[in-house]
């Protein structure tokens, strides 16, 4: 029995993050007869206003300050979203819906298991994080975080800036923005998120000729293109320094993005 436990622990210790491929879930393709109505994200904005703070350009979440009433407010927001079929709305409204849903579900996951040191501690025994756990049902379809990011957002919008919008509750992740996405501010927030991340040390760090990039650019290289295309993308947003990707390494900090 002890040997089986040892083998299991060894296998678990070798698990590493493997980024899923973008594989379209055709069920969620935007409708051609979309409503012009807007989806309210007011409750999510209330949560962000109350618990998100910025320290040294890093947004941190005050998980320890969240009360039962605040959790109920977040739960009500997610229940409101669960009653919506996003396919009936404009493509911009759908994008905002999916990003806010992803981020709100992630915060709820942390709160339901707090205190924890890292989101990677969640999920099953042989799982690296909770991304394949079923968390919500939308339009009669059960969804995981991986479904939202890799089967809906990435393949439908084909925009690498998606990676700056969804937040995994970790220091290494692009900041959780202090403004909820909506159909009108989508592009403005994506541009802000890209600029903030690429000009942060967790996004791009340069020491002499050595460039250390976030592992996001390694995990999702298919979204950012070849080295030349990635370099062009980074320099589009980088301020004050032309990036040359001659000697590159990657890194990522999975520590929880909590405010102490």
From TrEMBL:
Source organism superkingdom: Bacteria
Keyword presence, NAD: no
Keyword line: Signal
Domain DUF547 span(s) in chain numbering: 87-198
Cleaved signal peptide residues: 1-18
InterPro entries per the UniProt record, alphabetical: DUF547
Name recorded for this polypeptide: DUF547 domain-containing protein
Species of the source: Photobacterium frigidiphilum
């Amino acid at each position: 029995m002890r040997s089986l436990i040892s083998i299991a622990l060894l296998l678990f210790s070798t698990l590493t993050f493997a980024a899923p491929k973008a594989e379209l879930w055709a069920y969620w393709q935007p409708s051609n007869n979309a409503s012009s109505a807007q989806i309210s994200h007011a409750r999510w904005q209330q949560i962000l206003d109350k618990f998100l703070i910025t320290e040294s350009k890093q947004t941190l979440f005050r998980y320890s300050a969240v009360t039962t009433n605040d959790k109920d407010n977040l739960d009500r927001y997610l229940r409101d979203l669960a009653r919506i079929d996003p396919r009936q709305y404009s493509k911009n409204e759908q994008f905002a819906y999916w990003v806010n849903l992803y981020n709100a579900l992630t915060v709820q996951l942390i709160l339901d298991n707090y205190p924890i040191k890292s989101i990677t501690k969640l999920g099953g025994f042989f799982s690296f994080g909770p991304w394949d756990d079923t968390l919500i049902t939308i339009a009669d379809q059960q969804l995981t975080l991986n479904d939202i990011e890799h089967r809906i957002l990435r393949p439908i919008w084909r925009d690498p800036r998606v990676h700056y919008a969804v937040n995994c509750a970790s220091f290494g992740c692009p900041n959780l923005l202090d403004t909820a996405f909506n159909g009108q501010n989508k592009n403005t927030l994506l541009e802000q998120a890209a600029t903030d991340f690429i000009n942060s040390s967790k996004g791009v760090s340069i020491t002499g000729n050595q460039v250390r990039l976030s592992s996001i650019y390694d995990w999702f290289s298919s979204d950012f293109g070849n080295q030349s295309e990635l370099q062009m993308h980074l320099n589009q947003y980088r301020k004050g320094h032309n990036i040359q990707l001659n000697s590159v390494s990657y890194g990522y900090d999975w520590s929880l993005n909590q405010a102490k």
